[in-house]
Design goal:
Chain lengths: ~625, ~290
Amino acid sequence: MYGFHGRFLHVDLSSGQSAWHDLAESRLRAFFGGIGLGTSLLYEHAPPRVDPFGPANPLIFASAPLAGTGLTTTAKFAVVTKSPLTGFIADSLSSSHFALELKSAGLDALIITGRAPAPVYIFVHNESVEIREAGQLRGKSPGETESLIRAELDSPTIRVAAIGKAGENRVRFATISNEGRHAGRGGVGAVMGSKNLKAIALYGDREVPVADARGVKEIADRLRRRSLGSLTDKYRSIGTVANLAVFNRLGTLPTRNFQQSTFDHAEALSGETLTENNFSRRHGCASCTIRCERLFKSGDGEEQRLEYETLFALGPLCGIHDPEIVLRAARLCDHYGLDTISTGGTLAWAMECGEKGLSAEVQKLDLRFGQPDAVLASIAAIAERRGIGALLAEGTRRAAREIGAASLCWAMQVKGLEMPGYEPRSLKTMALGLAVSPRGACHNRSGAYEADFSGEVDRLSADPGRGALVAASEDFAAVLDSLIVCKFLRKCFTDFYGEAAELLSKVTGWNCSSGDLRRAGERIHNLKKLYNVREGWQTRDDWLPERLLSESLPTGVAQGTGLTQNELRQMIQGYYQTRGWDEQGFVPEKKLMDLGLPTDTGSSLKVEGWTNAGDVEV
Amino acid sequence: MGRPKALLPFDDQPLIAHIVRLLQNFFVDIVAVAAPEQALPQLPVTLVRDEVPFQGPVGGIYYGLKAARGEFCFVTSCDVAFLNIALITKLLSYISDYEVVVPEWEGRLQPLHAVYRRSVMPLLRKQLERGELRPIFLYDKVRTRKVAAEEIRCDDPEGLSFLNMNTPADYEAALKCWNEKSWKFATETASPIFSLPVFVTVELFGVARLLAKTKSISLPLPVEASLADVIAALAEKLPVLVGRVIDSGGAALVNGYACNINGLNFIRSPSAKVNAGDKIFILSADAGG
């Protein structure tokens, strides 16, 4: 087998046992690696309706066929589990050396189940698996944990993914972090914490041969050259923080908990201003030529990595305009291992509750828009589940249900996942993408906003035709996330499906066509939906928060623009129709059969033509 | 003068109507600022009154800018008969890099024949609050382009643009001059109507902003200009963008950059028309974050 090891490792923390299992090539051909492979393993190994914090919920790390090939931007891995925030699939990506080490350690996937009686970390080095005590790491940040484990194992080349205090305390939007990168969304860190698993350390020297090394190198060289051209100039020159100023001008910058789509102080926080005043250095993931990462220096001389989503969520969304505060808040989130989007979204929701007099505790904290001290204090409180932090650690949807009154109206989430920094009322295709995403309000598992920013549609108006655009974007993302290729490289392909098929063929020796890849994207997306259906998805889950459907935008170029329930409903129907789903959004049996997916949602994954790995042996 | 200057008969009409008739050939948005009780004829303009009387030129400029719609305005007094379109065009062409463009004739700045950005309004308001009623106090606080006499003479050799009427003798001299030169003005005001540039503002984001070291720039363009004309004018004005943001031919954006007009429409076609007053954003084509 080329491009894969053809096996996964299962570690059961309850018993302390581990076992290697074969992965059938038919599964890999159907789902590739990354999100696709992770989803297929989740579907098979998670008991239906499993408690996300229960021992049986599998936490899956999945490698990908392109990892380790030298192709730029492919040092990535996926983390898949049942989300404690949404109750549906959580599929996150992270990147850099840990991804390469996952492959070098001989793993196509690592499945962790059970719960250790005390904090532990897993150390995998080639064939050997150790479950080691981690009591001494309790309360440490992911970065500190990484250093301590390397020191303990006396090897600077070991790669570590770890949780911080937020994960230990099962904050429902805790991250898993490695080398300053994060599997950020959906609370995968909380699932890891629920297993008493502090970290995973990897070391290996297993090489995975590719079928046509020269062919892979030729394609890699071609994409590397393109990756250094104008198509990635934004990422290479400023980073994603460049979005803020232009989003503000286009009326798509969520501000003050989505009460506005423009921020009066946007210039103070813009990527351009940060670059001029705070830029410290540029950094990149392993094997990446784009190197989009930007570290900015705050007044105390400390460096902090900042992305647009973090900047928006801890800045305009909370009414904060001081870059120093945003940098400090981002540093705290990284220290504790918190998803910055959900943290900002939850704080913004609480601020609005405070302003509306709905929470005495919030008012006591002086947690209101633009108030920096309370923001910083609240982040620590969330991570430690102290005071109001215990409520906010549950995320906006659960917290709103707890507080009651109308606060669910301004809990800006979909399926429980807090919304990213793209205003749906002025980006109508994105509005649909956010509503129907299996992960919840997500800007990564589809890039629906691309249609809005392209000029091919009127971004301020809605029509049922957006369904086809969203479905195509989701399938495209599913393929990218399963090969895995960074989305920032996506525009460097002139014919993505054709070139990616050629690349996958040269890596694996399979004879892949662009049609195979398109079908795999559709299959992977449908399997995510199928998993959600099994976990209780209902039509009402594909919807947007009340605020977006009842309030028009008050400022900016999109002033007066809203989104009606009827418009959203029509777009969703157009989407279901494009997908070949029924009017309620369920996947018909015929569609499942066409895609080679199980037709009984209660059953395990038994796809015709597959050789399943069988039940996991412990 | 002893009579309202705006109503002085000139060219068979009140002087202010003469001025408005001249300007309306070139400006779509004209604002007249009058004293609270001042009588004026019917004019095709937006009429505003001084909110507080007796605030001098600063008050007039401030209230005029406040009522205007564009990003910058040409400001004139109502007692000049010989407005020179070529000179006004020149002044407007300088505003892209400045907040104020003001001519200097015979050693005196001409604040009531100048171009002001509306962004100076807060400073003017503070001047009014402090009682600083002379416009020149503003010029030290903002980027001001002073246009020297030799530049003015290229378009207006005798400086007639600044010939205002403070006394009956001034008025008589102006009438005499008009009778001698009216044929010439008629010709000059008829022909530039087809060549006077329209102005658009290009707003730069991301890499383009960092390279150009400016957030926006105003560009004069021919009437019926297209997006390609905008890009070409931008390349000429900011050559630092050529190669990175604008292709080496200077007529199109390179792959990876996009253009949006007025924050609403993403434009792909180079032949798309632009209109006077449009705001054209140059941004990354990739909105991933």
